[in-house]
Amino acid sequence: MLEKERGNAAQVALGGAGERARRQPLRQPSIKDIARLARVSHPTVSRALQNSPLVNPATAAKIRKIAEAAGYRPSAVARGLVTRRTRTVGLVVTTVADPFAGEVACGIEQAANDHGYAVFLANSNADAECERKMVQALAERRVDGIIVTSSRVGSDYLPMLAELNVPMVLVNDQYPGEFVHSVMIANENGSRAATEHLIELGHRRIAYVGDRSGYQTETERLEGYKQALAAAGIEYAAELAVHGDGRPEAAVAAMDGLLKLADPPTAVCCYNDMTAMGAMRAIRTRGLRVPEDVSVTGFDDLFFAKYLEPSLTTVRQPMRRMGQMAMENLLKLMSGEDSVAQVKVEAELVVRGSTGRAGANPGLKVETGGTRASGAGRRNG
User: Fold this and answer.
1) Are 93 and 42 found together in one domain?
2) Phi/psi of residue 274, each to 5°?
3) Domain hosting residue 109, numbered range
4) Is-above-0.70 flag for pTM?
5) What are phi and psi of 137, to 5 degrees?
6) Could you tell me if residue 80 is inside a domain?
7) Which one of 18, 209, 348, 349 has the fewest beta carbons within 10 angstroms of its own beta carbon?
8) How far apart are CA 275 and CA 292, in angstroms?
9) Which helix (H) or strand (E) holds 88?
């Protein structure tokens, strides 16, 4: 009863009573208000609410009860001015419509929330200059750290970081060159495993549909494809390595060009799942079947991969876990701890219905053979 009366008294003292209280909402109580009710100085209230050992435990407990009864909520801005920390991090993504970025962002937000941080989201629209501006804007708003997914800038951040003095971690840095702190999938291993899988199924005429932008991820995935061919004694054919832009529309045109070759491929490794989706459409548009006529692999294992018809064989990236790892790395940087500079996450091949044995369609020229090669982890999904 005593606590209830104290709370009522606090609200009356802070917000007024009678008709005036009904006419206007009660204002947010301040530290000075709490100090007046507790009959202590406002520095004492501030220390008590921050669990400072300088305040007598009994006094601190009384102050916290009064603050709770009065509906006091600490100001993050004011606290940041004192601690020089805002408990916020900035996240720059290529586009909020990208399923990959969405999954990574969920992992980042979960880890951030677990440690009492809020996440501010910015969209770079896959533009390098816009990405730089977004990072600078977040730094000027005093975020404690920044994460950039699928960066178009990469190592160009180094001089900017020296100027901004804000910890930063990249997820799947796409710009050629070394960046100080990043979390990346093992692109070469993943692409090599997908190509080896097709070779094991008897395919020898294997195409690659990449991303013409020249990102580091593209370079590494193309290299993994070449490594698998070389290990199996299959000569790399430049005519079979074509490029879209990572989206389905461009993949349709790229795949259509491959199918018009005098000796078309019986299988294709795609830069990502969005590319694979476009490739599958181009194959069907020409009256061919997946995988009976042409086998297809993707990269990412986005949410829709298992719902395609047939379901897509692809290289899985643990997107949420990569987001969590990036946030954990950033937390270490922000606290001054040692952290791993470049984290490589192992890829996993998930075999589904879009790949099958070569030779099902007698209308396509097929050469069987090849050797077995080791690659990334594998599972049926």
Assistant:
1) no
2) -65, -40
3) 86-183+320-343
4) yes
5) -65, -40
6) no
7) 18
8) 19
9) strand 88-93
